[in-house]
Amino acid sequence: MNPYLSLPETYIQQGIHPVAETANLYTGMGEMNGSNYTNYPPINQLCFLIAALFASKSIFGSIIVLRLIIILADIGILYFGKKLLERLNLPIKNIFWYALNPFIIIEMTGNLHFEPVMLFFLIWSLYKLHQQKWIWAAVLLACSVSVKLIPLLFLPLFFQWFVDYKLIFSNLKKSTVQRKLGWIAAFAGIKKIIGFYTITLATIIILFLPFYSSEFVNNYANSVGLWFRNFEFNASFYYIFREIGYQFRGYNEIAIIGKITPILTILFLIVITFFRQNKSMIQLITALLFGLCFYYFTATTVHPWYLATPLVLSVFTKYRFPVIWTIVIIFSYQAYANTPWKENLWFVGIEYVILYGFLIFELLKNRQYYKIVK
Question: How far apart (Å, rounded) are the C-alpha atoms in residues 227 and 298?
């Protein structure tokens, strides 16, 4: 069965019950969930398959298996996070900002969000990259993308790790020999970054290949597009822009703003790729952190579990605003307490005022060490 070609509501309509509690599961997850195609990538689907194999048709048994997978992934993050911190000469205890955070326990192990599996491959990839084993790093990064798509945003930011393009320009005024050496080093770096991107993208394609069909491409694109065209939750600047838009148009602002915010994210990523120094691993991870947070700051939807990624990245930097965010994100839970579901924007406002206040404090405090754009 190809999971990308079937809808939960189809089973309900046809009276087919793949598991004993199909009707309860469908009702509990909601009609919107049942009427859209899955957007979980292949390795995430593999985790679901493992749960089905070990738990047969029991939802309770599947929950146990999925929780065990997430706990094992968190142990892997703890292991490779510790090793990477050691290599970066950073305090090993930093990894506990992630591992012992109640938010992680509640949202990941408790609510079965698979960010830990994605982050396990991502941290392992960064560790291998620091060991100069970039081929393995590329494969592991692809595995991370194949659990959740969000690490695709990071691809441009690896450029300076391989290519010192500033060295090329600085050698233009030097001797012929120095210029040649600079060009040789730059060319070697360009070959590596092309290889890194090629291996990463090829591995992703290989993992998706068993499910490929024209219908799959259309279904998957539509499901991913929902996050930009339809969903609104716990947004930051988007809600401000939406209110401004209402004053002029009065309706469907997401149709316009939802198309603009990805473009802004791409432009920001380009800026910090080429105009910020990302040569060391700490500088690179800091760029990953701010690149991702810029996307979340402008996104139409920011679910609580999204914060696992900025939280674990912050462990390797001087910034702790993601820790504060994992505390104030609890204000967003208020929406789920209402029947029907409804957000109170005062709670959203309090969340982001506290977050941005602490972020500005940290930027001012650390400006002598780091600059977002150098």
Answer: 12
